Amino acid sequence: MTRPIFICAIVLCLSLIAGSGHAQEATTRIGDGPTRILLRSTTDIAIIRPVIRAFADQNPDLSVAYEQWGSNALFAQSRAACRGEALPADAILSSAVQHMVWLVNAACAHPYQSTGTAALPGARRWRNELWGITTEPAVIVYNKQAIAGADVPRSRFALLDAMRTRPETLQGRIATYDIGASGLGYLFAYADSLEATSFGALLEGFSRVGAVATCCSAEIIQSVAEGRHLIAYNVLGSYVLSAQRPEIGFILPEDYTLLLSRAFMIPKQAAHPQAAERLLDFLVSPEGQDRLAAVGLVSQIDDAENGLAPSARRFIPLSPALLVAMDRNRRAALFTIWDDAFDREIGP
Questions:
Q1: Rounded to an integer, what is the distance from CA 128 to the centroid of its chain?
Q2: What is the Cα–Cα distance from 275 to 208, expressed in whole angstroms?
Q3: What is the dihedral of CA 194, 200, 202, 206, to 10 degrees?
Q4: 308-336 per-position pLDDT tens digit
Q5: How far apart are CA 138 and CA 238, in angstroms?
Q6: What is the distance between the alpha carbons of residues 21 and 13, in angstroms, rounded to a whole number?
Q7: Mean pLDDT in residue range 290-315
Q8: Which terminus of the chain has fewer Cβ atoms in its 10 Å neighbourhood, N or C?
Q9: Of 25, 27, 26, 47, which is closest to residue 244 (Cα–Cα)?
Q10: Collapsed DSSP state (helix, strand, coil) of residue 137
């Protein structure tokens, strides 16, 4: 990230904290009910719309004002709302779950418990204030026309071998999330950093082949489909499936696959907390989970087709352990080695 772009990002963040700016990427209204609940989310509207539509159809007294945000901007806005400095949402749904754990720990959440929430696995709920509603793997994406057969990297170690043995083919042709622009990208990088056997070597390999760090899932997937990049690392599988691009394939890394559950929170200042509770109960219900699965947000990881061994699954739990990811010193250390690998001038 260049210094001018970084300065602009600081200005945007400060405007959000002051409550004077709006940074939602897209908005829509779903349903016609007189009581409108405000849902702020990092999930693309195009993906989740059928799920929210089903909820609105079953709750004709409600409508949903859906705002799609970038994860960092959503976190800044939610912090400001918690302090009473910005308009609060009725519900927040974010893939940057470390942000959500921070908000709950800062007493920004409304507590709730029901039969549906109590049935969630322990790793997908915390303090009856935060709930994981999806199951999504981080995958390796590749261009099928350029990479096939034994050349498809089915693990991080295979990706490392490819970067070592075919650097001329992969020079400038590998992409991943920019951890400064993407809270999800930072979360995945932090989770990878806990796997000491491969993380340092991966960063060294990315540096050697001039890998590109960029902001967005859609941009990364499109670049691989068009052949501008040949491989993308740590992309959310749900976005790959929803893109429906026949030019790309994806791999659940055999050494380990990170599994994310998007976190749902009801802010303590929510204007319609009971309506938000109804939405939560729908999302964790069997019907809600089936509808989330239909749009790719609940991966059927137990299917025999994917062949992912139970020992290779790394669930990212909703727990206080994620507060470490938000520690200033830990963030600074991660950004130092990341910026060096991607030849960035400065990290946030």
A1: 21
A2: 51
A3: 130
A4: 788 888 999 999 999 999 999 999 999 99
A5: 9
A6: 9
A7: 80
A8: C
A9: 47
A10: strand
Give strand ranges (E) for the chain.
26-30, 35-41, 62-68, 91-94, 125-126, 130-132, 136-143, 174-177, 212-214, 231-236, 248-251, 257-260, 263-265, 313-315
Residue with tokens 């990230």: 1
Give me 243's structure tokens.
């893109």
Q: Are 147 and 231 in contact (CB under 8 A)?
A: yes
Nearest CA to 23 among 181, 172, 179?
181
* Residue indicated by tokens 């109960």: 281
Which residue type sits at 203?
Answer: L
Contact 208, 340 (CB under 8 A): no
Residue 14's pLDDT is 37
Query: Which residue shows structure tokens 């490392």?
Result: 160
DSSP state letter for 319: S
Residue type, position 283, single letter: L
Q: What is the pLDDT at residue 305? A: 52
Collapsing DSSP states into helix, strand and coil, what is residue 332? Answer: helix
**Distances from the Cα of 169 to the Cα of 25, 160, 202, angstroms:** 35, 13, 17
190-222 pLDDT tens trace: 999 998 678 999 999 999 999 999 888 889 999
Angle between helices 183-193 and 97-105 (to 10 degrees): 90
Q: 267: how many CB neighbours lie within 10 A of its CB?
A: 22
Tokens 């939560």 sit on residue: 280
Vertex 330, ends 328 and 332: CA angle to 5°?
Answer: 65
Q: Are strands 26-30 and 62-68 parallel, antiparallel or unpaired?
A: antiparallel
For 178, list phi and psi in degrees, rounded to 5.
Answer: -85, 115
Amino acid letter for position 119: A
